[in-house]
Amino acid sequence: VFVAGVYCRHSSAFVLPEVSRCVVSIPEAMTLSPKDDMSSKVELNVRKANVVETFASGVKRRFYAHRTRKNLLVLELEFDNTKSDQDKTFALSTRSVKQSKDLKLETSTQRNATTQLGHNVNPENKTISQTIAIVTSISPDSVVVRAKEMKTVQLFSAFYVEEDPNVSPENTLAAAMKIFENAVHSASRSEHESAWSDLWSRGGIEL
Fold this sequence. Notes:
The chain is α+β, with helices and mostly antiparallel strands. The chain is built from two helices and 15 strands. Helices cover about 15% and strands about 40% of the residues.
């Protein structure tokens, strides 16, 4: 893939002066059937820029980094009860992941979210101090879906990295919280997919 522009990384820079259109020979969606029996299908949708995991129970889990909302990761849980004549309760559990040894983060709960605030103990550039703030939705313990209906639950994670030493950790956390709260009130998948559709239409790449 060849795109014109100026690219900089630390002390190096180079310029690509020409623009050429290219065709990427891959399907719009690529599907994998896992062997672990936990899910029946995992699909990467290149055009819509998301990953969808389908479980045998009919639950779908969709991930995407929001195209128009910077620093925002979205997790959608889609519960399908359209084939049942009875209400169904889906129990949810939180999977814990070991924190990277390069990060030192303190966790607390504020309002409707879990917050993590700290720093990178092993930054790539040792001369820059990085304060890291993460705000994540609190997942419900269960979801009730009425008979013949579907229900979607959105969970958000907002990430913010501040490299200015004059900005306090509290203000860095407040910036991450603002991203999170704006997403809770107005972020949508259609907005994300429309932005990607616009990019594909004018970006010089054809799928």
